[in-house]
Specification:
alpha+beta; 6 strands; 6-stranded antiparallel beta sheet; disordered N terminus; 4 helices
Length: 141
């Protein structure tokens, strides 16, 4: 597992404007998807509560200090921890995790290394996991 944990020095702290806009365009094209007001994150409302499906990574730069938003990496909800681990095994240059996500179904994705087609698939699947049925029914497979 240690080779799937991030070497944070390898990741820039912020995504380019184009990378953020690419994520925003894909995420907000999904029915009911909204962008958070306080950070780079996307959710869908379920029973009047926001259910996040993608958000910028809050990286811990130093032990015992607060986390810092790193928009160069997007945390994307997966259907299971097993699915997350398969993605990491498939391409650890794109996908990784950190101890904070142990036992949680989300994968960390390097935006500068993921293709638009793959990002679209990941965000659609994450949205489907969190969206209520009435919204999921609006999207064809």
């Amino acid at each position: 597992m240690s080779d799937t944990i991030l070497a944070s020095r390898d990741i820039p702290r912020g995504a380019t404007a184009a990378q953020c806009e690419r994520v925003r365009n894909i995420a907000l094209a999904l029915p009911g998807a909204e962008e958070a007001l306080d950070r780079f994150a996307f959710h869908v409302m379920v029973k009047d509560k926001p259910k996040g499906f993608a958000w910028s990574w809050l990286e811990r730069l130093h032990p015992k200090q607060g986390r810092v938003e790193n928009t160069a990496v997007l945390a994307i909800r997966t259907s299971s921890v097993a699915e997350r681990d398969l993605l990491i095994a498939h391409d650890p240059t794109v996908y990784f995790t950190e101890p904070h996500y142990n036992g949680y179904p989300a994968v960390l994705v390097r935006l500068d290394r993921v293709t638009t087609t793959t990002l679209e698939s990941l965000l659609l699947e994450a949205w489907r996991i969190m969206a209520p049925r009435e919204l999921r029914d609006l999207v064809l497979d």
